Amino acid sequence: MTTTPSTTSKAAPDEQFDDLTQQRQADLMGMWIFLATELMLFGGIFTAFTVYRFAYPEVFAEAATHLDLKLGTFNTALLVTSSLFMALAERAVNAGQRRKTLAFLFVTIGIGVVFLGIKGYEWHHEYTEKLMPILGLAFEYPGAHPDRAEMFFNFYYVLTGLHAVHMSLGLVTLSVMVVFTWRWRDPSRLGRQIQINGLYWAFVDVVWVFIFTTQYLLRA
Amino acid sequence: MSEAAANQASESYLSRGWRLRDWLFTTDHKRVAWLYTVSITAFFFLGGLAALVIRLELITPEGDVVSADAYNQLFTIHGVVMVWFFLIPSIPNTLGNFLLPLMVGAKDLAFPKLNIISWYIYTIGGVFTIAAVITSGVDTGWTFYTPYSTQYADRAVVAALTGVFVVGFSSILTGINFIVTTHKMRAPGLTWFRLPLFVWANYATSLVMVLATPVLSATLILLILERMLGIGIFDPALGGDPILFQHLFWFYSHPAVYIMILPGMGVVSELITCFSRKTVFGYHGMAISILAITVFGFLVWGHHMFVSGQSLYAGLMFSFFTFLVALPSAIKTFNWTATLYKGKLIFSAVMIYALSFVGLFTIGGFTGIFLASLAVDVHVHDTYFVVAHFHYIMVGGMVTAYLGGLHFWWPKMTGRMYPEIWAKVAALALFIGFNLTFFPQYLMGYAGMPRRYQTYPEDFQILHVMSSLGAGVLAIGYLLPLVYLLWSLRWGKRAPPNPWRAAGLEWRTDSPPPKHNFLEPQTVTGPPYDYDTIDNK
Q: What CATH architecture does domain B26-508 belong to?
């Protein structure tokens, strides 16, 4: 292995690559393929949801009215805004602006945390309404066909829960990016890393739009 | 470059560093390939042991060797281990890991760290699953069908599901690595239609891994949530549909069959062309057939569910697409045969493996066509006919190809030659033992012997005894290579860079190769498999 001292390794590609362009292309392509796998992961669950949505259209449309549309809409607006700041962070890091990059990353993370907080509040609200059929908790649905409605809520918790897990992972990797930006050792590598994080964040955003549409908006 | 540095660069990947951490924290794709080889071999013999006990039990019509409960656990262990911990990673993660960068002229895979991480995920997930299955006895079969798995099997189903879920990530990481490496790291001049068919096959396999595995992950998450949190997605009491589970499960698990067989097809293409001293007949057709199988493979999952009560029209379409898969498969089989035609055939051990593959794959494929017919399937569904069919593809096809490939590239991987005569004995033992084990199963399956039964009417005993005898011969075919390949590591003759006078970039470098595979950057100027030029030199 040819180990070059860290001071001169500033713009060197990893050892398996010929040059930085090849590495950047490979890294981005890897992330895109990973997002394709994520798409298939959520796709499987959305497919199952669609099957039941067609099987029990009235019950599902009625059950959806028990979700908080206002908070859901507000959260959607928040998340889309966070993606704007993520994109700004990408621009800033590529322009070599360390302080701006840090600021935009902080805003992105901040909005993400607020989103999760609101989501948690919604879940809590549904818990107090006895609409959380998890771990044998009482499910007291006021409308018709409580069994089918329970199925709707099952999907609601699976989809929003899985999305929250993805967001939390995104927040962790973004925090790591904050540390890397703070140190500012290899801006070229950092630019790549933040761009890849940005792709992931945008994906989490897009998935939410689908969750919002299928769970909140398709209502009676 | 100084002389010391030059010496270090040309040093073989095996000779640098034999401390534990040189292996466990390596990012060298060649060493990761070895880690995988050790792991899958261990899992293979574990799964094989379960099969041997099953065959022992089935010598007599009564249940006398193990209890009925233990029998159910045994076939579950056999299925789970062989499918997820052996067949799926077998060729891609061992030979593929070792050869893909070499064959495209790259220094390593695109993401070497992900590569070693994938091995950790695979091994830890695998050991965890095995521990769960063995200590508490999961008896769902490898398919985890609902509602049995969600409502009745009150054992460590969640632990087993979690293990399989975790192992799925290793497939995904490998898939991403192979796809990006094939796209972005090919040597200058190595255009897509100059790629070895082994690379094509692993590329297509990676596409399936990347697109199908996440759906299995989602399905397993739903099962785990249903069991742990009571979120009943497949619960009939809530209007849920257990058949939906089968759809989601087979959406992954049918394409997974192609994860298991496509790499074998890639291996065999390399072997046959080399030992016929002829270029592959219809190279473009071969490459396109691989892609066609990949695409059609995603459209046929419902043929596992012909008797599940799915719509008849769905059944018709699934049946139709299943017949379509036969077209590219037949193109491949005909092209292998046409490659042999008028070739200068060399009946080495490797060639015996390759020819076994073609014959056994053909039988397995043909019986697949019977099963694709709606009416016939009603008769033979869930019988030993199905068991025989997929073992002809999985063992007769994939395992044979794996062993053939392991022998073919053994000199490259280890720098040592294996004893040819013993390899021939092992290859023949595999062929004879395999047919003796599984051909009787076609007969008893057609006569109505259901799969997964511990006891059976006495009429079937003669066929069962033949099958069990065959399993013994088959075991010899597996144990022999284990012995003489390990023997060759120390006492085998040293291998030259290209002992078979084969085409392909991997043969242009030393055996075993240096850390970065090639001392000089490689360029490619012509089509693959140019055996005329090689032999006329």
A: Up-down Bundle (1.20)
